[in-house]
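[job 4471] stage=fold_predict status=RUNNING
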Amino acid sequence: MDKNTISDVLNCEAYTFAPNLLHLILFADPATYNKSGNRSQWFVFSAIAELPPIKRYEVENVVFHSSWSGSNPDFNIYLQRYNSEIDMLLKDGLLLNGTHYKFKVHIFFGDAPCRCKSCNSNSFNGKYGCIKCLHPTIYNTKTIYPKLDTVRKWEVIKKDRLGNVISITRPFKDLDRIRNRSNQHLQPASS
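[job 4471] inference complete, writing structure tokens
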């Protein structure tokens, strides 16, 4: 896709059109309501991807699912007990004006701490914090999770004070061993 082209969630490879199928864009966000404690308010909303982008996030088109007030929620309990209507929509669909609509979650948005909590991870900025795979991270003034095919060719070149090359290493030679996250593979690949 050209850099100057405006794209949308409906342009991605993961989106497939089907009649009477609506894709939900779920998003969760916390808001801290005092400066000196761990009390916060958490919200889960969704939008329908098939709406035009300009209409998608207007107040009347956003679906409010739940809120949690207090200390940080356990997302296993929060999503399971207090967001059951999402499960009902996904399981049963919705009959509206004589048409039965099915629903599918297309994307889940959240900031890094929210993604960490929703994926039941201990930390969002440490090793193995990527939500898609068990990448050990790269630290270069900040923690990053680059695409695996990009870093396969990376080399670390060490030079002396005069600029002479001392050594060249490939720090990511074991990238083929990195697995995607799944319930079957909860531990990172051993080195």
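[job 4471] summary: The radius of gyration is 21 Å.
[job 4471] exit 0
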